[in-house]
Amino acid sequence: MLNTTPSPRGIHFDLQQTLGVNRLAGLWRLMSHYHSLYFGAALSTGIAAAANTATFLLIRYFVDRYLMQSERSISLWWIVSGFLLLAIIQGGFTFLSRRLAAQTAEGVTMRLRNYLFDHMQRLTFGYHDKTQTGELIQRATSDVDAIRRFFADQAIESGRITFLFLMNFGALLYLNGKLALLSILVVPVILAVSLWFFRRIERSYEKYQEQEAKLSTQLQENLSGVRVVKAFARQAYEQNAFDAVNREKYRRGQKLLLMHATYWPVTDIICAVQMLGGFTLAASMAIAGAITVGDYLAYVGLL
To answer: What is the pLDDT along the chain (303 residues), one digit of tens a residue?
Structure first.
């Protein structure tokens, strides 16, 4: 069983341990010895989300309490300092979460690249003779970069959205329970639409990756056998073959982009309709005196 070279943290790690049926469990094992860093990134994301929520609650206090008091017990500078402090906390911990997530992602992918390159050099000649070169290139480049993007951006962004949703929903419940419940009516719809789209996007992405591997193989064969192609006057044939593979890659990529171009506007429209309805309802409640102006401003920001 092959071992990777020492990681930047001076730890030997066998990537065969990450193999398993559950993909999430495999990703968790792949992150071994970096769990504490990623936990710090998640915690920093939560603190930044809390500071964001607290900012709108401070706006509510400023409008309903400070501006409405004839005799103010605290100075305006304390309110201003509160906004500045919350902005610094949000920006600082957002930066820290991104830095820790990027450090984890780069460490994991460097360890994975070292393992893959070492493993491919030790494979038999027969394996390399039967396996397409483009597929090996795909595994060592695009697939590894997809894992890096997952740890650096996608996972931490999902955590940020989750933290923001939970904290903002808790703040909305504190402001007005009716508005809070009406604000999440579209969440099941968004989840259902997302699951439906992502299952199809996943299949399209896998087909696109397979075609990219074929294109890399075709290009490698053309470059390595250029003398043979010229000797047998096969330029036109090879050019047509490459064009066919490249056109198929373009078609699959176009289909994948079309799915993305459909998903995001649809979900944005659903969310926009819900937000417009929420703003209208909250405004009517503020006019009727059911909620205060500060409640309305905080609701608009939290929504």
So the answer is: 444 444 444 445 566 666 665 677 777 777 878 888 889 999 999 999 999 999 999 988 888 777 777 666 777 888 899 899 999 999 999 999 999 999 988 888 888 888 888 888 887 888 777 777 667 777 777 778 888 888 888 888 888 888 888 888 888 888 888 888 888 888 888 888 888 888 888 888 888 878 887 787 777 777 777 676 666 666 777 778 888 888 888 888 888 888 888 888 888 888 888 888 888 888 888 888 888 888 888 888 888
- Work out how many domains the chain is built from and give that number: 2
Domain of residue 103 covers 1-175
**Same structural domain for residues 216 and 166?**
no
Of 117, 127, 102, 115, whose CA–CA distance to 38 is shortest? 102
Residue-wise burial string across 42-69, b where 16 or more C-beta atoms lie within 10 A, e elsewhere: bbbbbbbbbbbbbbbbbbbebbbebeee
Same domain flag for 184 and 150: no
For residues 64 and 294, what is the distance between their CA atoms, to the nearest angstrom? 5
- Based on the domain organization, do 94 and 146 belong to the same domain? yes
